[in-house]
Amino acid sequence: MTRQEELHDDGFDMIILGGGLAALAAGYAAVKRGQRPLILEERGRPGGLVCGATFAGAQVDIGAESYATRNPAVRELCHELGLETVAPNSSSWVWDHARRTAVAIPAGTFGIPSDIHDPVFVEGLRAVAGEAAVTRAWQDLELPPEIGTEATTLGELVEARMGRAVLDVFVTPFAGGIHSAHPDHLMLDRVTPGLMEAFGEVGTLTGAVAQIRKPGAVVVEQSKGGMFRLVEALSTAIQAGGGRIDNHVRVMHLEAGIGQDLPRWVVWCKHTVSNRRHPGGPPEESGTAFGLATDRVVLALPAKQSFALLTSAAASMLRLGFHAQKEGRDASTRFDCAALESIGELTAGFEMHPATPVLNVTLVVQNADLDRAPRGSGMLVGPPPLDPETGEVAPETLRAKALTHYSIKWPDTMGRAAQPHTHVLRVSYGREGDPLDFLAAVDVDYALRDASRMLGVELDRSQLLDSRLINWGDAMTHPNAAEREKFREVVQLAQRVEGLDLVGSWVAGNGITPVIAHALQLG
Q: Secondary structure of 53-68 in the HEC alphabet?
């Protein structure tokens, strides 16, 4: 069989590589324009880190469960697809390792209060860190406005304006529970867009938070019934509009063909099957490679996979002899060879710093004491302290990074089928620096013990109705400054390569909201 005979062209207007939310949003934007996209997903379902499962007769999220409302794009998308959106019920807490108890989180953002005199903030900080910490936090109102203006990370800004205690008590647990990272490693422009601009206007950190987080404002929402409903609705709309979603297809290589007798792009793939040796792990390849020809590709994969494909595309162009010095810009296709060649130089051998593995344990328990929501919608936990003598984490230390009382936070998900006093709890593990042997030791019993401590309610196997342990692998990535600069260069160069589009968190920023908002703008 010749190479041309191995190629398939099913008449799709574009091929989208990857099947997460960025891919689905890009595919939906395409069908709204009357185009037919083909989405390739290597697993057995689209949606990426957004998916649901059935527990005790109720469907709940086992991945991402909400989106930030600072940009209305996701809310508007949900409503356009006929989905109702709802705000979370109740409030959240943070864990105090020293006293082994919980502290309520003040209204604001990332644990930073919007009101410096909020009793929840003042009393919680005083109880954990003492009166001196409260006095230091109040200095935010008196410090010169230039203090903190050069901060680039969330941790730098909070410590400069309000002191180390506020950072340790409220902000670090919040950042660790949500982003699996210390606030010193979270870039302000990516995790709190608009905060520095507001700080520059009002001159205080709490004033800036108040400006971007109005009293009573809803900070996060979900599509009613679970975020997985959005994945279902997008998939349905794409297929109804003439698009197609092919699951169990892994993209292996990307070729760039420039010339009258060559397709613009060839996507080389293999079919996959579920991992039999490691259930839940990456799918295994099956069968022989096949090529899909198209004039437009959309990369909706993580940075590492995207860079590998861009490297292969540049290399294929050079093998065909279309290099920058010889051809420059091909006039017939407006395809900038020099730009793709430069992308290949930037992406070749790319190694991103290690991502943080994430592990979630979902527990469905029957316990009447949980009806009173002892910790509201859940709890966030800072990094465990190290024993000063051994340098190790003490065995009795709480190691979970977060707990979500899902059935309290999102009461619409349980429905009427659930038995009385039935509660869904999600216990999360995996933060920067956690050893892999620790994560390997986490099981349902471990999660039950941690949940008991965080909720102040004794839970055991006798109350357990259902459970599931989900290992998301290296799910959390926070690019450093050098990586972000490389991303920026690649994105700029890709704008000069006709028929190539880049979407996803490494392009748009972490979180459902920026990923979807960016992908919906695909023209």
A: EEECCEEEECCCCCEE
Q: How many CB atoms lie within 10 A of CB 480?
A: 11
| Pairing status of strand 37-40 against strand 422-429 | unpaired
Give 159-200 pLDDT, tens digit per residue.
Answer: 999 999 999 999 999 888 788 788 998 989 888 889 999 999
Q: What is the pLDDT of residue 6?
A: 64
SS3 of 482-522: HHHHHHHHHHHHHCCECCEEECCHHHHCCCHHHHHHHHHCC
424-450 pLDDT tens trace: 999 999 887 777 788 889 999 999 999
As a whole number of Å, the CA-based R_g of the chain is: 25
Q: How many residues does the chain have?
A: 523
Q: How far apart are CA 332 and CA 140, in angstroms?
A: 60
Give 252's strand partners: none
| Secondary structure E strands in 208-279 | 220-223, 244-246, 249-256, 265-273
Q: How far apart, in whole angstroms, are the C-alpha atoms of residue 197 and residue 504?
A: 25
**pLDDT tens per residue across span 337-360:** 889 999 999 999 888 888 788 899
Integer Cα distance of 241 and 27 in angstroms: 10
Q: How far apart are the first and last CA of the chain?
A: 37
- Mean of all residue pLDDT scores within the chain: 89
For 288, 423, 483, 513, the CA distances from 480, given in Å and listed in that order, are: 38, 39, 5, 21
**DSSP letters for 99-166:** TTEEEEPPSEETTEESSTT-HHHHHHHHHHH-HHHHHHHHGGGTS-TTTTTT--BHHHHHHHHH-HHH
> Could you tell me the two tokens for 480?
């450093």
Q: How far apart are CA 407 and CA 2, in angstroms?
A: 57
Q: Is the pLDDT of residue 502 over 50?
A: yes
Please tell me the predicted confidence (pLDDT) of residue 287.
85
**Cα–Cα distance between 414 and 362 in angstroms, integer?**
14
